[in-house]
Write a structure and sequence with these properties.
With 498 residues, the chain is of the alpha+beta class. It has 17 helices and twelve strands. About 1% of the residues have low confidence.
């Protein structure tokens, strides 16, 4: 009897789909792999054409071959739907994910923490879903989501930026060139993250800390290793569930080192009689937060805080240093709001007085978003691109590719900050779901405002004092780790302005 009901329901749904010209997901175009057994080997050397580190290339190829919606059968029983159409991207955020946005990410990190109940109570806000995720997110975001709270951190941020710029000349070679700007901005990002999150100075700019075995060098490497292992462990054959693979071991060692450092910070704070103003102070004072969750959140702040800011700033330097006109406009704006070296970047400056600097950052995020797109798990059946995509399907937006298509942007490969200014009427025609570098909605990056504030501050201060010349490769490609990173050295010559 039950089987008859299911068959009748399926037949009824099919009739409705046909009547409304809606196709089933089985009809969606996309790669199925060898003999239809899945496409995961296409990302594995020596068999495949791609790797997990060039998803932007596979993404562009799939768009050209299959169109604006693609179903990639990874392994039997698991597929990813890639979305290129901004209307479909808007659809999943507005209709497809429900009250508690879910995603399939950081699975190996979740296992690592669940295997250590003496240290962690859960997988943390990165892999956790549903109501458990919201309980964590709602408490941890209190110190980061409010614009005013972030602006209260602006004096510390500005002081740290000035310190960073003051040490840059010591890193110049004889031609006033920094061969690896990413390494320098990583140290700034680590120092700022630890100051704001833990009220700790790490002495990151000191010569002794540049030794590979120093505390700061190991923290930067641990965060980098953690980011680099997420995609391979999420999307591969997941053999790490059964034994410790080389990739999982890399993640474990990285997490163990970060865990050691953050526990030291927490223990130090616990013995202090008076609470400070850092994020850690706020978390420890919150009776709704378990200390084991604080360990996970503290490690996650290091995971995201170091490289989100440093890679995005590096891409901004790449684009700006290749465009003298943009540099001159940035310099003019910076001199207007910071006429002397002693002037501070104030809340008023950040809120209303640097429209061109903000446009430069927005254009950087268009061409070089933090990740290739945003992944979500559908909470109910959703029509996307004329196909009925079932509940629990993993969908990933292809914002990196979409932002480089002529149907979405005029002259899409050209760096044009002016397209984001209010006086440009073309801005009105840009779809709001094309440039979403920090995600969208309830599950957007928890430290988005803090990262943007830091990057804007760095851009202002650097181009107030310096003219830059690009000395790296002709076209800077990306490597699609969890966070997109420059694939080659970011090599820049700094010319001091009078």
């Amino acid at each position: 009897m039950l089987r008859r009901i299911k068959n009748f329901t399926r037949k009824f749904q099919t009739e409705i789909l046909v009547k409304n010209d809606i196709k089933s997901m089985d009809m969606m175009p996309g790669p199925k792999g060898f003999l239809g057994l899945g496409n995961v080997l296409n990302y594995t050397k020596p068999f495949g054409k791609y790797t997990w580190h060039d998803l932007h290339k596979s993404g562009m190829d799939y768009y050209r071959m299959y169109g604006p919606i693609v179903c990639e059968r990874m392994v039997p029983g698991f597929s990813i739907v890639w979305l290129y159409d901004p209307n479909d991207i808007a659809q999943i955020f507005n209709d497809g994910i429900g009250n508690f946005p879910c995603r399939r990410s950081h699975l190996a990190l979740q296992k690592y923490r669940q295997d250590r109940p003496e240290t962690y109570r859960s997988g943390g806000i990165l892999p956790t879903n549903g109501h458990e995720w919201w309980k964590l997110r709602s408490e941890f975001q209190k110190g980061l989501s409010s614009p005013q709270n972030v602006r209260n951190l602006l004096p510390q941020t500005d002081d740290m930026v000035r310190e960073f710029i003051s040490v840059l000349p010591s890193r110049f070679d004889h031609n006033c060139t920094i061969r690896d700007f990413v390494s320098e901005i990583e140290r700034f990002s680590l120092e700022l993250t630890c100051l704001i999150a833990f009220d700790e100075r790490m002495n990151s700019f000191a010569d002794e800390e540049r030794d590979p075995n120093s505390r700061t060098s190991r923290l930067i490497k641990a965060s980098d290793d953690s980011n680099n292992t997420v995609l391979p462990t999420d999307q591969g054959l997941q053999l790490w569930r059964f034994f410790e693979t080389r990739t999982y071991k890399k993640l474990r060692l990285a997490q163990e080192y970060k865990e050691k450092i953050v526990i030291e910070f927490i223990q130090k704070k616990a013995y202090q009689k008076e609470r400070g103003h850092s994020l850690l102070d706020q978390y420890l004072s919150n009776p709704n937060i378990n200390v084991k969750d604080i360990v996970g959140m503290s490690a996650d702040l290091l995971l995201g805080g170091i490289h989100t800011t440093s890679f995005s700033t590096s891409f901004a330097m790449y684009h700006i240093s290749r465009n003298e006109r943009v540099q001159n406009l940035l310099h003019e704006e910076a001199m207007r709001v910071l006429p002397t070296l002693e002037d501070k970047v104030t809340t008023q400056v950040m809120n209303t007085e640097i429209p061109y600097t903000r446009a430069v950052l927005k254009e950087t995020f268009r061409l070089n978003p933090i990740s290739i797109g945003v992944g979500r798990i559908l909470n109910h059946d959703t029509v996307l691109g004329g196909y009925l995509v079932p509940k629990k399907t993993t969908v990933v937006t292809q914002n990196f590719v979409a932002c480089r298509l002529e149907e979405n942007f005029h002259d899409p490969l050209k760096f044009l900050p002016e397209r984001w200014l209010k006086i440009n009427h073309q801005k009105l025609n840009i779809h709001p779901y094309l440039v979403i570098p920090f995600g969208h909605g309830m599950r957007s990056c928890i430290a988005r405002r803090l990262a943007e504030q830091a990057i804007l501050n760095v851009i202002l201060r650097i181009f107030r004092d310096y003219k830059l010349e690009w000395k790296g490769c002709e076209e800077l490609d990306i490597s699609t780790r969890l966070i997109n990173r420059p694939k080659s050295d970011v090599t820049i010559k700094f010319i001091k302005r009078n």
